[in-house]
Amino acid sequence: MAVILGVDPGSRITGFGVVRVTSGRSEYVTSGCIRLGDGAFPQRLKVIFEQLSVLILEHQPTLMSIEQVFMARNADSALKLGQARGAAIVAGVSAGLEVHEYSARQVKQAVVGTGAATKEQVQHMVQHLLGLSGRPQADAADALAVALCHAHAEGVHRQLGAAALGLRSGRVRRR
């Protein structure tokens, strides 16, 4: 059994989702958003770290998966997103979690079947795959999708064998 904490980092809203995977079947545990408001940016990073640390203590995930930075049109936005990711990654690594990173395209491909999926398609598929009664908020759905992407990738890795995929050793893995 694995408990995966998925994170969709953001400098204003960071989505999180926890999924339990047993015998290849994914089960919803919890999800939501860390709303960071308009405070000073260093304080927002602190909130990301602290809130994810609390979630990790509460739900005891066995690993974390997080979305990689994409190139934004605005360099300042990309830098802030990278710093938000850093705060989230440090929360995971500080708790002893192995952290896996996936591109937005990989996440969409794993959950929807196309790397060009819309946010609405991701929300719909997350709702369907986890048997949720309603659509999760977009940032929470993205975080759950990151967790599901890892669950899917792990299933594929077990089937093909890690050596065939050329996995690297280390605490932070890029996919």
From TrEMBL:
It catalyses: Endonucleolytic cleavage at a junction such as a reciprocal single-stranded crossover between two homologous DNA duplexes (Holliday junction). The active site is at D8, E67, D139. Binds 2 Mg(2+) ion per subunit. Keywords: Cytoplasm, DNA damage, DNA recombination, DNA repair, DNA-binding, Endonuclease, Hydrolase, Magnesium, Metal-binding, Nuclease. GO terms for cellular component: cytoplasm; Holliday junction resolvase complex. Its cofactor is Mg(2+). Mg(2+) 1 binds at D8, D139. Mg(2+) 2 binds at E67. Its EC number is 3.1.21.10. It is an enzyme of class 3 (hydrolase). It is found in: Cytoplasm. The keyword DNA damage applies. It holds the Pfam family RuvC. The keyword DNA damage applies. It comes from the Bacteria. Its main location: cytoplasm. One of its GO terms (biological process) is DNA repair. One of its GO terms (molecular function) is magnesium ion binding. The RuvA-RuvB-RuvC complex processes Holliday junction (HJ) DNA during genetic recombination and DNA repair. Endonuclease that resolves HJ intermediates. Cleaves cruciform DNA by making single-stranded nicks across the HJ at symmetrical positions within the homologous arms, yielding a 5'-phosphate and a 3'-hydroxyl group; requires a central core of homology in the junction. The consensus cleavage sequence is 5'-(A/T)TT(C/G)-3'. Cleavage occurs on the 3'-side of the TT dinucleotide at the point of strand exchange. Belongs to the RuvC family. Homodimer which binds Holliday junction (HJ) DNA. The HJ becomes 2-fold symmetrical on binding to RuvC with unstacked arms; it has a different conformation from HJ DNA in complex with RuvA. In the full resolvosome a probable DNA-RuvA(4)-RuvB(12)-RuvC(2) complex forms which resolves the HJ. This is Crossover junction endodeoxyribonuclease RuvC.
